[in-house]
Amino acid sequence: MKTKISLVLTIAIYIASVISIHAQNANIIKVVRGNADTVTSASHVIVGVTNPGSEVYINGNKVKQYKTGSFGGEISLKEGDNAVVIRAISAGVQTEEKFNVFYKIEQRITRIEAGDYKFPVVVTKKGAYLNYGAGQDRLGGAKINFISDGIRMELLDSVANLYKVKLSENNYAFIPKDYVEKTYPGTKPPFSLSGSWSVSNIGKADRVTVSLEQRQPYIVKQERDPNRIVVDIFGTACNSNWITQYLNLESIDYVDFQQVQPDVFRVIINLKHKYSWGYSIDYTGNSLNIVVKHSPKPTIKGMVIGVDAGHGGPASGAVSPAGYKEKEQNLAMAYMLKAELEKRGAKVVLSRTDDSDITMPMRQATFKKENIDLLISIHCNAGGNPLVNGGTSTYYKHIEYRDLAETILKRLVAMEDVKNFGLIGNFNFSLNSSAYYPSVLVETLFMSSLPDEEKIVDDKFQKEMMKNVAKGLNDYLRKVRRSK
Ligand SMILES: [Zn+2]
After folding, report:
1. pLDDT tens digits, one per residue of 403-440
2. For 26-103, CATH number?
3. I want to staple 405 with a disulfide (CB 3.0 to 4.6 A). Which of 182, 287, 381, 396 is the partner?
4. pLDDT tens-digit readout, 290-337
5. If you measure from the C-alpha of residue 310 to the centroid of ligand 1, how many angstroms do you get, rounded to a whole number?
6. Omega within 30 of 0 (cis) for the link into 226
């Protein structure tokens, strides 16, 4: 009997204490999401619940509380330990809940299977690019595209200053030795299953992100008709069961994929417009990002145009029979073209403003920094029979910029006594190799030809020629406008 009484008493005390806890802690804060110890993302979502009708603050910022009592907010974390303070005020009573979240910046996962992999493997460095073959010319062989750093590929062969590397079972390419490092023996080249994608508008461009398990080599090519960007990712098999596509895209129409070979995964980016303004491709962690620029307003007015004067400093370029230097003509014409374009309302960025020796990477850096919409390089040609007119020519690397080179050439060959030397494609001039903006190289006339020399060193002729370059650009932009 005694024990029964004491049991009843114990239960009664217990019930009373539970009720009193509820009464005293009227605004208890319960965190239901976000109080993890360690996270790998800087943006961190916190969700909790407290007395309905409270004022709730996360790290001093008021957040919305819903009728159910739930509240939530997003904070951005810095690397390392982050203190989180949630404060709720209900009927004048303030309650605080504190915890810490550790933000760890995730290292790129490189699944290295050490062991007895018997073939040598190389890993790409910054600035690396792939070539189609082992061919060499004065500009360095036919380039496919630039490629990110940190990509491992099996080394197949060595030819002069190039390595032959394996992209997948049936594909190979060549890569300059300067742009790779040999890895330690036993390192296997990567293979990935593709993960989820997202396609979004990031402001001045649309971006496709394809997550992979490791950094795989890729080849990218823009095609016309239909206008699309095709990216072959090697050593990759499709496991993408989730492609998020937002509705506010401007340059991308839709994306698709094909498994073209068992180990070649093809990403197809169909574009909305006939004319393109450039794209870039690079890894962030193990995600491959393809950024496709939006179209600027297709008028010279308001456009940022890069004008590049070839050579400079000790690099004179071609020297004419009478001793005129190409670098001087190029610089003079670059200033004339600048004036022509500015007259029409463009902002012009020069890669060289005086007789200095500016390397190709420095020129590219200037244009990248100024975020140019389009590039025109000015050079003079040399070679061939000095007794006849050499003529004028324009050059492009990427097929999508062929029309730009063509409209400018048409204006130049319409000038009196200017011979057509041709429209030249897939040209290996390094400033044209960036696909990030439309570009054209203008080889005005031949320094080495006597009839051409007379014209190309003449101030009046130079001005006339640059005026026609500007007109050709204008023709191109008119085509762009009409295509919409
Ligand atoms: Zn030149």
Report:
1. 999 999 999 999 999 999 999 887 767 777 777 899 99
2. 2.60.40.10
3. 396
4. 999 999 999 999 999 999 999 999 999 999 999 999 999 999 999 999
5. 5
6. yes
| Ligand 1 geometric centre to CA of 393 (Å) | 12
* Percent of the chain with pLDDT strictly greater than 70: 90
Ligand 1: centre distance to CA 173 (Å): 29
- Would you say domain 121-182 falls under CATH 3.40.50.1820? no
What pLDDT is recorded for position 21?
42
Q: Give domain 193-293's CATH number out of 3.30.870.10, 2.60.40.3500, 3.40.30.10, 1.10.10.10.
A: 2.60.40.3500
d(CA 464, ligand 1 centre) in Å = 20
Average pLDDT over the chain, rounded to an integer: 89
For ligand 1, a single-atom ion, which residues have Cβ within 5 Å?
310, 317, 379
Burial of 115 (0-12, 13-18, 19+ CB in 10 A): exposed
SS (H, E, C) the chain: CHHHHHHHHHHHHHHHHHHHHHHHCCCCCEEEECCCCEECCCEEEEEEECCCCCEEEECCEEECECCCCEEEEEEECCCEEEEEEEEEEECCEEEEEEEEEEECCCCCCCCCCCCCCCCCEEEECCCCEEECCCCCCCCCCCEEEECCCCCEEEEEEEECCEEEEEEECCEEEEEEHHHEEECCCCCCCCCEECCCEEEEECCCEEEEEEECCCCCCEEEEEECCCCEEEEEEECEECCCCCEEECCCCCCEEEEEEEEEECCEEEEEEEECCCCCCCEEEEEECCEEEEEEECCCCCCCCCCEEEEEECCECCECCCECCCCCEHHHHHHHHHHHHHHHHHHCCCEEEECCCCCCCCCHHHHHHHHHHHCCCEEEEEEEECCCCCCCCCCEEEECCCHHHHHHHHHHHHHHHCCCCCCEEEEECCCCCHHHCCCCCCEEEEEEEECCCHHHHHHHCCHHHHHHHHHHHHHHHHHHHHHHHHCC
Distance 325 CA to ligand 1 centre (A): 10
Per-domain residue ranges of the chain: 26-103, 121-182, 193-293, 304-482
Report how far ligand 1's centroid is from the alpha carbon of 381 (Å): 6
* Res 383: pLDDT: 94
In the predicted structure, residue 11 carries a pLDDT above the cut 60: no
